[in-house]
C-alpha cells in the first residue's frame, strides 16, 4: 500500500498491517522520537515507514502545527497592552 507523504514529492512506502500486529521496539522508539521537532524532520527524510509510524507522524505534525498557531496568537495578545500605551 502506498500513501503519499504530504511533505515529500515522492510516494512513501507503508508496510501493511495484519490483525495481530505488535510494533517492534524500534518502531516504538521512532514513534516517540516523532513527537520531538527533530524527530519529525528525521522521519520525513525516511522513505519506508510502517503504518504505526505514519500514524504517529501525522499526530505529532498536527500537534506541532497547533502549538505554533497558538504561540503566534498568544504573542499577538501579549503585545496588545504594550501597543495600547504607545
Describe, in plain words, how this protein is organized in 3D.
This protein has 86 residues and is of the alpha+beta class. It has one domain. It is 62% helix and 13% strand. The chain has 3 helices and 3 strands; from the N terminus they run E-E-H-H-E-H. It has helices spanning 25-34, 37-45, 51-84, and strands at 2-4, 11-15, 48-50. It has a 3-stranded mixed beta sheet. Helix 1 (25-34) packs across helix 2 and helix 2 crosses helix 3. The radius of gyration is 18 Å and the shape is rod-shaped. The mean pLDDT is 79. Keywords: Membrane, Transmembrane, Transmembrane helix. The chain crosses the membrane at residues 32-52, 64-83.
Mass-distribution shape: rod-shaped
Looking at how many chains there are and whether they match, the oligomeric state comes to: single chain
Write out the strand line-up for the largest beta sheet, numbering strands in chain order: 1-2-3
The major β-sheet equals: 3 strands, mixed
Beta-strand residue percentage: 5-15%
- The average pLDDT is 79
Weakly predicted, low-confidence segments: none
Q: Please identify the structural class as seen in this structure.
A: alpha+beta
| Helix count, DSSP H or I runs of 4 or more residues | 3
The helicity comes to: 55-70%
Q: What Rg, in angstroms, do the CA atoms define? A: 18 Å
Number of domains: 1
Q: Output the helix-strand order.
A: EEHHEH
What is the first-to-last residue Cα distance?
Answer: 58 Å
* Strand segment tally: 3
Transmembrane segments: 32-52, 64-83
Keywords: Membrane, Transmembrane, Transmembrane helix
